[in-house]
Sequence to fold (114 residues):
Amino acid sequence: MSDCLFCGIVAGDVPATIVSQTPRTVAFADINPQAPVHVLVVPRAHHANLAELIDSPEEDLLREVLAHATEVAQSCGVADGHRIVFNTGPEGGQTVEHVHAHVLGGRQMTWPPG
Ligand code: AMP
Ligand code: ZN
Fold:
């Protein structure tokens, strides 16, 4: 989608600190980190949120996003303590409508999240 920020990052049109890439997913540093490790993992293909990804013909992409997110947690040194989060909708805290997994770690997580 031409007006999607994360499609712009995937395309290389918007600068970002790329952490790692796979053929179908990209991991990049969150611009406003909420923890010492805060990386976003997105599918290259545009899907607005988790439900749209699951309902799409490429629902297998979710496994790749999660596998990549887990690999990021390992490569960033937080394999033993991290949180992987998908926000959905304004009330869920979603601000960018391109599905993304937050990988957070490097500090004690609190529960419930705010
Ligand atoms: P969410 O609020 O769950 O939709 O998450 C969107 C995330 O994208 C937020 O944590 C933002 O800090 C992050 N973000 C916004 N713009 C950029 C950008 N240009 N590069 C990297 N991360 C960004
Ligand atoms: Zn997009």
In short: The mean pLDDT is 97. The chain has three helices and five strands. Residues 5-105 form a domain with the HIT family, subunit A fold (CATH 3.30.428.10).
